[in-house]
Structure formats: C-alpha cells, structure tokens
Design a protein that fits this description.
This protein is mostly helical. Helix content is about 40%, strand content about 0%.
C-alpha cells in the first residue's frame, strides 16, 4: 500500500476496508490540529471551525463535495486495494487545495475511460490465480497488460443497482 494511503487512512479510516472512506470526528482532527493551527492555503479559518465544534460539543458540518447518483455503486476499498489507485487519481491534489473541490466529473464516461485504459496490477491477493491465462499471455509477450474492462469492468451491474 502506498505511503500516502497510510497517512490518509489515519483521517479516512474506511478507505481500505469499506465502500466509503469515512469522515473523521472533530476529536480525531484535533490529534494534529491542536498543534497545526494554520493551513497553507486557508489560514486559520477552517481549522478554527474544528476547535469551535469540539468546544461546543457539536459534530463538524462537513460539506460533501464528491457526489455520485444514488443508483451508482462505488467501493473505495476495492479501488484502493485491488485497483491500487492513489487518492489523487480521482480526487486531485487535495493536499494542496485551499478548499476541497471536485476536479474530475466522476461521470459514467469518465469511469469507463479509466476502466478501458487502466492496466490491472495482478500483484495482489484480490486476483489470485483466476486470470492465469492473462498471466501466461503477459509472460509470453502476447499482451502488454489487462485492462479493468477486459475482466468485467464494463458490466453494468458492477456499478449500477
């Protein structure tokens, strides 16, 4: 697992185990933001909201930025573990954003484009030996790789309820 995922996993604890990445509690945020009180891009205003929420005993009122339609199934753990995607591939360079924003349209076309271009990294337990034919063809130089689409990544029912 990339080191960057490990640090993000501290705040978004579900990213490797769940459909959703998870939203941290204000107390978890304060584990860092009791010391780090000023952001590079946003100054103190956003971090002050965390302190205020804790002082008032209220939950942080997060604003959801990345929205998918209700009929779409997306699993963070599958994409992080099996797909070995880095968060920036979908979410952009969040670490350098002053305020989180959606950088990709997350449309069906955008997802399918990724599935058609992204080669699978078979070097993980998720795939096991079920694609031995592809392993053999790659080893023989018959193919460069296998895309997500080639193993069912365009099957409608995998992403739609």
């Amino acid at each position: 697992m990339p080191a960057r995922i490990k640090s993000i996993e501290y705040c978004h604890s579900g990213v490797t185990e769940s459909k959703r990445s998870g939203i941290p509690s204000a107390n978890l945020c304060l584990n860092c933001h009791n010391v780090i009180k000023e952001g590079t891009n946003t100054g103190t205003a956003e971090i002050a909201k965390i302190h205020k929420a804790v002082e008032e005993g209220k939950a942080i009122q997060w604003v959801k930025v990345h929205n998918l339609p209700d009929h779409v199934y997306y699993n963070h753990a599958q994409h992080v573990n099996a797909g070995k995607l880095d968060c920036t591939e979908c979410h952009g360079d969040v670490a350098n954003m002053g305020r989180l924003q959606q950088v990709n349209d997350l449309s069906m076309g955008w997802c399918l484009d990724c599935h058609r271009k992204k080669f699978i990294d078979f070097d993980n337990e998720y795939y096991g030996d079920q694609f031995q034919k592809y392993h053999d063809e790659i080893a023989k130089g018959m193919r460069k790789g296998v895309t997500v689409s080639e193993i069912g990544g365009e099957n409608c029912a995998k992403c739609h309820y």
